[in-house]
Predict the 3D structure of the following.
Amino acid sequence: MTHDSFAVNEDLLSQFEKELGYKLKILKSGDAGAALNQAILSKKNPLADVFFGVDNTFMSRALAADIFEPYVSPLLERIPDRLKLDPSNRLLPVSYGDVCLNYDIAWFNQKGLRPPQGLADLIRPAYKSLTVVQNPATSSPGLAFLFTTIGTYGQDGFLDYWSKLRGNDVYVANGWSEAYYGKFTRARGGTRPIVVSYASSPAAEIFYSEKKLQKAPTAAVLSSGSAYRQIEFAGILRGTTKLAQAQKLIDFMLSPGFQKEIPLHMWVFPANPQASLPDIFVNHAKQSQKPVMLSPQLIQDKREHWIEAWTERVLR
Amino acid sequence: MRLNRHIPLVVPVLLFLGIFYFYPLISILLMSIVPQGSLEIGKLYKLISSGYYAGVLWFTTWQAALSTLLTVIIALPSAYIFARYDFKGKALIQNLTTIPFVLPTVVTAAGFQALLGPRGIVNSVWIDLFNHEQALIRIDQTFWFFLLAHIFYNFTVVLRIVGGFWSRLPGNLLEAAQLLGASRFRAFATITMPLLMPAILAAALLVFIFCFTSFGVVLILGGPRYATVEVEIYRQALHLFNLPMASALALIQIFFTLGLMVFYTRLERKISISLIMQRSDEGAKKFSSTGTRLWASVNFLIMALLLGAPMVALITQSFLGEEGLSLVYYMSLLENRTGSILYVAPIKAIANSVGYALGATMIALVLGWIGANFLAKSKDRWAACLDPVFMLPLSTSAITLGFGFIIALDEPPLNLRTSILLPAVAHAMVAFPFVIRGILPALRSLPRNLSDAAAMLGASPLKIWLTIEWPLLRRALLVGAVFAFAISMGEFGATVFVVRPQTPTMPLAIFRYLSHPGSLNYGMAMAMSSLLMITTAVGFLFLEKLRYKI
């Protein structure tokens, strides 16, 4: 059971099915939030044996609902400690990626304006009306960007930053697609050259371009304190009747074979550093050296409060 | 209440609603409002403590009322032309007006953006040709934008339901009135309007409920400053995980529409008049005078601008690559670039969508037919109670129901959570109220004594049905079928929860493309949207052909 963005290579999966002697059935249940909520709702009679796609913003909710079995996979030791957020090993890190600002390179070249270097640039007068973000109440990158500002400006300072951003005519779209394909200058008819997206988006721009591009048309801003790290976890759903197979599936998801397919299918980085990255990721997808991360517990406690305060300050 | 002798007739509908609507809905409501056997009041405190939710409900209501009023005003003249005149391409144009119905909101937004956005056609012409500095139209994230979209989506509901009914109003009544000296206006106001009222009300009700539960349109076109109750349910359920609040809001939505329905049903019973309808093609004339031609042209122009232009803009985008005209987006649809197990070939997506839609249409027609027949035949309290109940699925939040499916339909014999049948069932549930509203006005207007007379003369029930009811109802049934098909082709909210990932529908495929960056993804979404429009149009034409065959 997983969310909309999950994808995997067909041959790889059928090969694993042969080894396992079982057929895998993939269930998708809306976006990450919707999928997790359904897993929690159906906990008496689980829909599936393994769940992939709890990220660090939803992690506390998943752990509090107690829907996962602990499992210490032998492959866990190969995964860097900074990605392991659950000491009880109910949720195992599978992939990670950074939510950050993206900008349209050609637009900034043409205007002779320096591309944004970090959050502080967005509130300068020269950058008025240039930025589009997503509503944290309805969008997961939008929420991640709100967390970025909280991590950087602190719980006492982030609302002032947003007031200034509002004063600088920031545009708030409800979802990622409306922002990226509606308002960003790379889209037809878009007028804003800065958008909140992912660090891998420039690589995706190359991969899904009409002509083979040598250089990405967009770039990601990854300076210290301007990106938020999302880590995605998988876990075995409590109540499974196929524990041994579920454990094998988790091992498979952490193995280099599966992990090296993650970048081009889901546009994030594999958690297992032994997985080789495709060229397009090596050349065009970067990671932030100092991403913002908030503790899952803090997020769980404050999420609703922050979103309401943000809505009050930016939209009303 | 005395038991109604027609009740056994309607058992299949009640059974269907019981299993697929009430059981999941009540399960989810109970689970979220009383999770551990006790009421969780704490999470509901905000519902009354701040005026916010009252504000949301008020906004939802009046924007829906305004959208409905505008849609009816704009579509009524066109309904008249389609009802009373015969012209080339009539069936085709009518079918084209229904296509917006299937378009996902993100795609509609792209269509309007290409026309009216800051760099859209209208503003580009204004800035470049007339040397203006500022854009002419700034409609983005405004109230007007989603009002416009509501008209775009619902125009066809009024056109088809009112137009279809109007075409069968006997023209000779009007002529008689005019012969007796009534002015044209007087004849219209005292004869046509009262006769037409049941159909107008039925259409207005559907439009109102659609706008009242509007989700994507408000979320995407209205932007984050506007929220309907449905948008608020979505936020509460998926992002804040405040299920008690989401359920309370869903209940408010249901009771509100239930109240409205009770009011409507009473009104409808009062105003429906039975008369002998003519065949739909009997009264249609050719355009004769310059005046009528001009009048019709203005109407066609409005339809072309309002409905045609955004769709043409979308299709144009699907053929416009970075270097001019190209088929690159269509070709890319055929390619599984990453060898993904979830890749879906366009022909497969079309087959999935059409398969679900045909299934949903069949179920909705059968249930709608049974339900409408029951409502038309019984005039007692049973019917008065059941009529509003039949409309409930249309006004229930897709998220709430989707969650309901997951927790209720989880054990044999109802272990349907991942069944291939579930999408068709979910679509049929939304579509069947449409079928009922589409055929009920026609059914009610069937004079009883006609069948009684036939029976007295010795005709068998089957013969009565075949020779009297069927010819008069065929068209209404077709309208129901068209809407059921369209609703299923375009449904997104509930589909996300119930469809299997390997058999996605076309709207789901569009959504997948639009969730990754890259010009190719955007282009493929436009190409798939164009295919969706074409497939739907072909489906309509097929249904239309069927009508002449049977």
